[in-house]
Design goal:
Number of strands: 0
Shape: globular
Distance between the termini: 36 Å
Oligomer: single chain
Largest sheet: none
Radius of gyration: 15 Å
Number of domains: 1
Helix content: 55-70%
């Protein structure tokens, strides 16, 4: 899901619909990978798509609030442990 969140302009589906799709891998990700990936690369080019998407990390956090929550939890533990 987060990989797709880094490429919203390439999706043919509104982000809300992507989030609601219970079969997002089959219905959205696989066609996306077929269109924008590189079948000659290991993993079909997922590595390149991840790298491109991570360049938009803040946008990913906006589209995937569970990642933002996880990041906040990790930061709070790091800060708390550093204060010990």
């Amino acid at each position: 899901m987060w990989l797709l969140a880094g490429h919203p302009e390439k999706l043919n589906t509104p982000w809300r619909k992507v989030r609601e799709d219970v079969s997002v891998k089959e219905n959205v990700f696989e066609p996306f990978l077929s269109q924008y990936g590189d079948p000659r690369r290991y993993g079909g080019g997922r590595d390149l798509l991840m790298k491109q998407g991570l360049a938009r990390y803040e946008q990913i956090l906006q589209r995937c609030p569970e990642l933002q929550s996880l990041q906040n939890r990790i930061k709070s533990h790091v800060v708390r442990d550093a204060a010990k």
